[in-house]
Amino acid sequence: MTQTLAKPAPLAGDERVGRRSPFQKLLGRPEVGALVGAIVLFIFFSVVSSTFIQPSSFATVLYGSSTIGIMAVGVSLLMIGGEFDLSTGVAVISSALTASMFAWYFSLNVWVGVALALVVSLTIGFINGWILVKTKLPSFIVTLATFLMLTGLNLALTRLISNGVSSPSIAQMDGFASARAVFASSVNIAGVEVKITVFFWIVLVAVASWVLLRTKVGNWIFAAGGDANAARAVGVPVTKTKIGLFMAVGFCGWVLGMHNLFAFDAVQSGEGVGNEFLYIIAAVIGGCLLTGGYGSAVGGAIGAFIFGMANKGIVYAQWNPDWFKFFLGLMLLLATIVNLIVKRRAELK
Amino acid sequence: MNAKEIDQKTLLRNEADPLTHTPVHLLELDQVGKNYGNIRALSDVTMAVDNGRVTCVLGDNGAGKSTLIKIIAGLHQHDHGTLKIRGEERKFNSPRDALDVGIATVYQDLAVVPLMPIWRNFFLGSELTSGFGPFKSMDVQKMKDITKHELAEMGIDLRDVEQPIGQLSGGERQCVAIARAVYFGAKVLILDEPTAALGVKQSGVVLRYILQARDRGLGVIFITHNPHHAFPVGDRFLLLKRGKSIGYYEKKDITLDELTAQMAGGAELAELAHELEQLGGHGDVVKEVHGEMAGVEQATGKAYT
Questions:
Q1: Which side of chain B, N or C, has fewer Cβ within a 10 Å radius?
Q2: Is 0.90 topped by the overall pTM?
Q3: How big is the CA angle at B250 (ends B246 and B254), to the nearest 5 degrees?
């Protein structure tokens, strides 16, 4: 990612361009506030708790980070594109419920349910985006409505189909073992069990960064969030870009939803409420501007990592987990203030 | 009026395009009008744009200048009259349509995204890519080099194409926007009040780029409310007032004073001076308006006081 800035254009010694040290260049990156925060937090917990830096504990921290981070990838891109999505938390559960109950009700191979869940997740994203661009309502209102509707649908349909508050167990069904191997297995690296979601997370961050920085779609995302009217005027398909971003969020929700389902064999229909804020917090801590046009996928990943460290670190330090939310709030405030300062510097310099 | 209005029919018959030598205009409007509901925003506008010529559209606030360019740029469709590109009648459904026939617009707010680097803005919407299929990526180094080169070609010496465009001055941003339009093969360049928010020196710089664009063979439509900016660079002048054309002149048929007089309207200036005096306006301002009136009287041969 640092590639873009690390190699300034060959300028043939223009005296107006002061030599910038690598350190100063680093300060200009959107995720710098989060990076500093992550390092401080890492050192802090390493000192406070001896178990924190053990490889197995660290793998647990990474796993916790990845369950937030996978969604934070999509949410970060969406936020750079100038919108945000409050329906992500329950949409993850909708996806998992679709897969399990569809396969269970029709006694099909679970992979059929998995495929249908992907379609449903992308459709939820499409509908969010489509309503947004058609009505020009703020995404806050549109996705708040989707959030409430999905919450209701999750509970009502689950009760209707399985007569309970959780989806029926699909552990004995065809394809469950292979689906679990794909979505919820662990990989042994030097004696440490690392959950597969960590790798999903890394791949998604890499792909998102490439798209954002090296493809024209990435250019359109920055432009759609930075100034949608200007982007439209020079021929950027702003509406398609925004709908596509909501669908990308839907895709991330599908990946996480499938993990949630196959890590166990059933899903609680009331879960997921409130998680949408964790994803948004991760993206904001990672340097994405709420107003759009600025940020990075790596930043969202660092934000998720901070979340994972604070979440598990408090446990390893044997503190009362009640403190966790306080920590999260403090991190959010500090990170946003740092971002604000960085943005002002970038604009005024 | 001692200024001679252009007879559009005669012009069409007599004037050959200076570059292609055909009696067809690059862009031509004939009695174009636009309504917003029951509001008549624009009516009966006739004008032409040719290669290597600057057509100025002058008018005060609310004269219909913005509506006119929105029609030409494809943001709105006209309700009356015809719009022809090289003799072929067209109606644009989107800015993309207009861009595809070579009409590029540099908007007042510049259509640049302030937080994005200059090179990303330069190529926004027309990115260069290499590779194929889903692995198509942007050719970043080439885009940076071209940006640097094209801007240097226009005589703009930029520090660093990686800096956010929001850090540039208003004049520099105008120039980047103009260079972008020229690079992407614009045939018609619409400049929407490029000098409105600029100081004297910066305005001069932008006017120079207008002439450079003209000399590169582009047809330029220069929208402004300042006759002092329009007159030195324009070849034709269309004057708008309250959504109507109040005159269309060739440069040889009109002087700067006449242009100013036409735009301001002598009677209105007299009224303004009177009003300012009554309100206890500053002596200098009133004097200035009187001075302007004297110019108008001289030019039009009428007395307003």
A1: C
A2: no
A3: 75
